[in-house]
Design brief:
By secondary structure, the chain is an alpha+beta fold. It contains 1 helix and 3 strands. It folds into 2 domains: 40 residues, no CATH class; 37 residues.
C-alpha cells in the first residue's frame, strides 16, 4: 500500500486518467474529490465487497443448473 501526505487542494493522479483531490479535512474525516473517465466504476469498499459476495453466491448457486445443462448438451439425440 502506498501512503501519501497531501494538503487541501493537492491531488494525486493514477494512470494518467484518475485524479484524487483532497477537498477538506474535519477531525478524523477527509473529504476527497475524484475525476475519472465515464468508463470507470467507483464504489465505496463496503458496497464493492457486498456486490462481490452476492455475485459469488449467485454463481455458486447456479452451478447445479450449469452442470445439468452441460450434461444435457452432451447427450446425443435419439434417432
Amino acid at each position: 500500500m502506498l501512503y501519501l501526505t497531501r494538503k487541501i487542494g493537492e491531488s494525486v493522479v493514477i494512470n494518467d486518467e484518475i485524479e484524487v483531490t483532497v477537498i477538506g479535512v474535519r477531525g478524523k474525516s477527509v473529504k476527497l474529490g475524484f475525476t475519472f473517465p465515464d468508463s470507470a466504476t467507483v464504489l465505496r469498499r463496503e458496497i464493492h465487497d457486498r456486490v462481490r459476495e452476492e455475485n459469488r453466491r449467485a454463481a455458486h448457486s447456479a452451478e447445479p443448473f450449469l452442470d445439468e445443462a452441460d450434461r444435457l448438451a452432451t447427450v446425443a439425440p435419439d434417432d
